[in-house]
Design a protein that fits this description.
15 helices; 372 residues
Length: 372
């Protein structure tokens, strides 16, 4: 009646048992292996598409006319942090269930998720400022690199899973920080070499020292997004498809972030006397369109992350590092846009080489724990 206890009937029965049975099992294993590989490919491809969309979200913002930074930032936030996340979360709700009733039934998880969303909002706010002072390429690289590294540490620590911080994870974080440092060196080289006029032309409010500080703070606080998602893991239903499971938690995190950004932006409207931006009726249709497009592109990264993780359920390591993978891809695509927008125009070949090395180290660090 088969092999030893705990052994599948076909195991160990190659030459000794029916060859046809062994052949059948081998064929089935090959099919299953191909299925897993295909799921990995699809999952990572979806995450990559989301990362590309996020890195592209600042392009339509450049099309907005006459509005101050605080005005267009909060308007695009309505789409990025409220409307599209709500539509995404509704996809996770089974027939006959209520999204907000589920939140009410889990008050602790709900409040903690919103709290870390509010903290992430500080990161999101300063993230936008880092673009203002450093440009798309350098600002996103440093902020997202820091977020990628600290997200790997703070997630397990704040959710009581510090034991998940294995030596391979710590090594990956250290290498990530090395990559950030190299990118910072490239930025310093660029700042030192470019004439003042060229810097102002590429990035209107370029300020390297101020931008670096803001970008590092943005990365630190942005890591709270992943912590919020961890606290929000219970906020779903058993019937919800894997590809949509994290979307209800995503809505709460972005809602918390919206609150933080709204307080700041409205205070800036008062301070800078820019409330009149919202009264320019002739600009509303144009600016609203590009704000909506920017919001949709931005949200796509977390919608894609949820969908991608649904295809990676059989690979816990990839699930754990999916956050880092997303951040690394955001860095890559943001620098592609930075080049297209001429933010590195005039930089020497040596500076560009240092930048490329830094990006390569940063990307490698996100996969390194899986190789150790």
């Amino acid at each position: 009646m088969g092999g030893a206890r705990g052994q599948r009937p076909w195991e160990g029965r190659g030459p000794k048992g029916p060859e046809g049975f062994e052949t059948l099992y081998t064929a089935e294993r090959k099919i299953y292996r191909k299925w897993l590989i295909m799921n990995i490919f699809i999952g990572l491809l979806i995450i990559a598409i989301g990362a590309f969309c996020q890195s592209s979200s600042y392009v339509p913002i450049n099309k907005i006319k006459a509005w101050s930074w605080e005005s267009y930032w909060i308007v695009q936030g309505v789409f990025a942090w409220l409307i599209f996340p709500l539509l995404g979360a509704l996809l996770a709700v089974p027939s006959g269930e209520s999204l907000f009733a589920m939140y009410a039934a889990n008050p602790k998880a709900t409040l903690l998720t919103i709290l870390f969303g509010a903290l992430w909002g500080v990161g999101g706010l300063t993230f936008g400022l880092s673009m203002r002072y450093l440009g798309v390429a350098l600002g996103q690289s440093i902020a997202l690199g820091t977020c990628s590294a600290l997200g790997a540490i703070l997630g397990p620590v704040f959710t009581g899973h510090a034991h998940d911080l294995t030596s391979s994870v710590i090594i990956g974080v250290v290498v990530t920080l090395v990559g950030i440092a190299i990118i910072g060196v490239a930025g310093a080289m660029k700042a030192a070499a470019l004439p003042e006029e060229e810097r102002k032309k590429a990035v209107k409010d370029f300020n390297f020292g101020k931008g670096i500080a803001v970008a590092l703070l943005a990365g630190f606080m942005s890591a709270c997004f992943n912590i919020g998602l961890s606290f929000g893991e219970p906020l779903t239903w058993a019937e919800t498809p894997d590809i949509f499971k994290s979307l209800p938690a995503t809505l709460l995190v972005t809602f918390g972030g919206f609150l933080t950004n709204a307080v700041y932006c409205f205070s800036q409207n008062t301070r800078n006397k820019t409330w009149g931006d919202y009264k320019q009726k002739s600009l509303w249709s144009h600016n609203l369109l590009f704000c909506a497009l920017a919001g949709l592109l931005w949200y796509s990264q977390f919608f894609g992350l949820s969908l991608g993780k649904g295809f990676l359920r059989d690979y816990p390591t990839l699930i754990t590092f999916s956050w880092c993978i997303l951040m690394a891809l955001n860095v890559v695509f943001s620098n592609v846009w930075g080049i297209l927008l001429h933010e590195w125009k005039g930089a020497s070949k040596k500076t560009v080489l240092v930048l490329v090395i830094g990006l390569a180290v940063l990307i490698f660090s996100t996969f390194l724990p899986q190789l150790i």
